[in-house]
TrEMBL record:
InterPro entries: LexA-like, LexA/Signal_pep-like_sf, Peptidase_S24_S26A/B/C. This is S24 family peptidase. CDD domains: S24_LexA-like. Residues 21-75 form the Peptidase S24/S26A/S26B/S26C domain. SUPFAM superfamilies: LexA/Signal peptidase (SSF51306). It comes from Vreelandella azerica. Signal peptide: none annotated.
Length: 99
């Protein structure tokens, strides 16, 4: 899935995101959160006493958390992305040469 709202953070097809549920949800951290039943990845921001979710892509407006139902799944800690896709024996040999 391509996350258009996070285009600046480059989350592309088949990207794996690791979220840590034991970390505290603090302003400035990127979190995995269900908003009105839809899972999303956004940065948590505080403006005064109001909490917002901000996408990395400036084309998207911040989402005020007080106006929606939400549940935090965890704090995003790692992104795993395929850098080289190999196919067949030749591709495997090329991959092993890189190691």
């Amino acid at each position: 899935m391509y996350y258009n709202a996070n285009i600046a953070d480059v989350l592309l097809n088949e990207t794996k995101l690791l979220a840590n549920r034991s970390l505290g949800v603090l302003p400035g951290r990127v979190i995995v959160i269900a908003v009105d039943g839809d899972l999303t990845v956004k940065r948590l921001e505080l403006v005064g006493l109001r909490a917002y979710l901000r996408a990395s892509n400036p084309a998207y407006r911040p989402i005020p958390l007080e106006e929606c139902e939400s549940h935090v799944w965890g704090v995003a800690t790692y992104v795993l992305q395929v850098l080289y896709r190999y196919g067949g024996i030749g591709g495997l040999q090329q991959l092993l040469c890189l190691l």
